[in-house]
Design goal:
heterodimer; A: alpha/beta; Rossmann fold; seven-stranded parallel β-sheet; five-stranded parallel β-sheet; 16 strands; 24% helix; globular; B: alpha/beta; nine-stranded mixed β-sheet; two-stranded antiparallel ribbon; 6 helices; binds flavin-adenine dinucleotide; binds adenosine monophosphate
């Protein structure tokens, strides 16, 4: 089954989610090609060409894809799909935004957030905030799906595959990009970090959230948050972990002042080791935590940060 | 401007879904059902537009069983003007839902469609994008702020790195994210008033679109559980455990 994989990047870095999506594509069969769309994206294409198992990289180098507007991506990808049996993109904000669109234009039912590929056209995906796993078989002529990156092991690197420059079709997109406000941080990226420290409503203020950041920095972790903490303005929206935020599965996840609502668990319960610090011994987070500490975070977290010196 | 809001009846977000023992699906018998939270946010946004004089009429549309009338009543109590129920007992895929909504939208010709980004049962996050593609209208998903400026809507979106702002000409499809607004509670008088608002009852057959499933559900199973861990007595004990588990140096 020939598969086209959409590369996730930010113009400077090829995201690890791409390597994981290539792994899912290889599980579907192959050959696997990677599409890199962006402005001055040559260096990204070179990185994609080095992913193990990739046959070739299609480079769509144009300002039209920077940032990747769903309508523009669809106009690029739909004609390309004449040559492929499947299209996979990581289940990131970008992937979720354009994949269903491409599917509708091809009259295909998209499959969202696949976590396993038990058969050639069979997929597993979480539903109901991860409280159930659905196994579906596609009866469509093509597979159009997003891949949950945390569920797949990243493909390795190998010799460089060839890069083919695509002619950019003329298209007219009514949607205009106005601007963006991106969070800047020297910390590892939340979605792929090996360690994550998250704070909840109990932090009480944006200032107090510094306790989370200090602990995170001590152990080289990314910072996450519950929805309640984001809603209250203690942390930016892109920190939200959960059913409708980011899904993470680090080696270590530390949940601080987070009760453990199902929507939060949906985004972190596949972490290898989960630590919870909460003053309520009955908080649901303790039911999934490997190590629970019943304590007031305002004394326990600084103490923990200090003791990791 | 007429605003159309598709709303879905789903399991209440406070209820933990349980898989049926025969693995054919999730047990919804005697389970509390509610309006999908993201749809509620979409309704709220439309009502605020009407309060600001930007919207003239709000039409809520639901596809689902007869009980989805309650979901529409909920939207009407929040301030929608009328409802359309497209009755279906099938569990329709996003593609079929998008095709039905497209047909309903062509019949209503709204100036704007605001809907949820995701239904919390199937967690597809797909219908809005698909509807936009089928209609050939612009899409602005995951909205945390909508500002109508003449013929266009400025939409701030929650993306992976932060926030992005798009300007889309209307009619357009906008999908709501959590931070768009905080939905109101319907007051008792408004709940009473909503009972008298009209709901147009339709059948899927009225729209003549292909609803055939494309995905065969082979089974629905429990996710792998986690073994309950232990409670530690002190920060010191916690650090010790983390060292033993090899997750910190
Ligand atoms: C449609 C929908 C989607 C959602 N999506 C998400 C999502 O993606 N991610 C998400 O996180 N949530 C999501 N939610 C929200 C979710 O239901 C919960 O409301 C939210 O996760 C609660 O956040 P919290 O645990 O920080 O706050 P709370 O539930 O208020 O918990 C705070 C915890 O802090 C503890 N605490 C208080 N003070 C202290 C102290 N001094 N020291 C130690 N502990 C203390 C309390 O015991 C309590 O357990 C969603 C909800 C809906 C309806
Ligand atoms: N059966 C339905 N009836 C009305 N609207 C729906 C239905 N299913 C999905 N939607 C709309 O599409 C949005 C996204 O749903 P989904 O793509 O299924 O996650 C929901 O928030 C609703 O606004």
């Amino acid at each position: 089954m020939s598969v086209l994989v959409f590369a996730e990047h930010d113009g400077a870095v090829l995201k690890d989610a791409t390597h994981k999506t290539v792994a899912a594509a290889l599980a579907l069969g192959g050959p696997v090609d990677v599409l890199v769309a962006g402005a001055n994206a040559g260096p990204i294409a070179a990185l994609a060409a080095a992913i193990e198992g990739v046959r070739k990289v299609l480079l769509a180098d144009s300002q039209a894809f920077s940032p990747p507007i769903a309508e523009a991506l669809s106009a690029l990808i739909v004609p390309l799909m004449a040559d492929y049996d499947a299209l996979l993109a990581p289940a990131t904000a970008t992937g979720k935004n354009f994949i269903p669109r491409v599917a509708a234009l091809l009259d295909v039912s998209p499959v969202s957030e696949i976590i396993a590929i038990p058969g050639p056209k069979t997929f597993q995906r979480p539903i109901y905030a991860g409280n159930a796993i659905e196994t579906v078989e596609s009866m469509d002529a093509k597979i159009i799906a997003t891949v949950r990156p945390t569920a797949f092991k990243a493909a390795g690197t190998s010799e460089n595959a060839p890069i083919e420059n695509l002619a950019i079709p003329a298209f007219n997109v009514a949607t205009q990009f106005v601007g963006e406000e991106l969070s800047k941080s020297d910390r590892p990226e939340l979605a792929s970090a090996k360690r994550v420290v998250s704070g909840g409503r109990a932090m009480g203020s944006a200032e107090n959230f510094a306790l989370i950041e200090a602990l995170a920095d001590r152990i080289g972790a990314a910072v996450g948050a519950s929805r309640a903490a984001v809603d209250a303005g203690y942390a930016p929206n892109d920190y939200q972990v959960g059913q409708t935020g980011k899904v993470v599965a680090p080696e270590l996840y530390v949940a601080i002042g987070i009760s453990g609502a199902i929507q939060h668990l949906a985004g972190m319960k596949d972490s290898r080791v989960i630590v919870a610090i909460n003053k309520d011994a009955d908080a649901p987070i303790f039911q999934i935590a490997d190590f629970g500490l019943v304590a007031d975070l305002f004394s326990a977290v600084p103490e923990l940060t200090r003791s990791l010196d | 401007m007429k605003v159309l809001v598709p709303v879905k009846r789903v399991i209440d977000y406070n209820v933990k879904a349980r898989v049926k023992s025969d693995e054919t699906g999730v047990d919804l018998a005697n389970v509390k059902m509610s309006i999908n939270p993201f749809c509620e946010i979409a309704v709220e946004e439309a009502v605020r537009m009407k309060e600001k004089g930007l919207a003239s009429e709000i039409v809520a549309v639901s596809i689902g069983p007869a009980q989805a009338q309650e979901t529409l009543r909920n939207a009407l109590a929040m301030g929608a003007d009328r409802g359309i129920l497209i009755e279906s007992d099938m569990d329709l895929e996003p593609l079929a839902v998008a095709k039905l909504l497209k047909a309903a939208i062509l019949a209503e010709s709204p100036g704007l469609v605001i809907m949820g980004k995701q239904a919390i049962d199937g967690d597809n996050n797909a219908v809005g994008q698909m509807l936009s593609a089928l209609l050939g209208w612009p899409q602005a998903t995951f909205a945390s702020r909508i500002e109508v400026q003449g013929e266009r809507a400025m939409v701030t979106r929650e993306v992976d790195g932060g926030l992005q702002t798009l300007s889309v000409p209307m009619p357009a499809i906008i999908t709501a994210d959590l931070r768009l607004n905080e939905p109101r509670y319907a007051s008792l008088p408004n709940i009473m008033k909503a009972r008298k608002k009209p709901i147009d009852m339709k059948k899927t057959a009225d729209y003549g679109v292909d609803l055939a499933p494309r995905l065969k559900v082979l089974k629905v199973t429990e996710p792998p559980g986690r073994k309950a861990g232990i409670k530690v007595e002190s920060v010191e004990a916690l650090v010790q455990q983390l060292k033993t588990a090899g997750v910190i140096g």
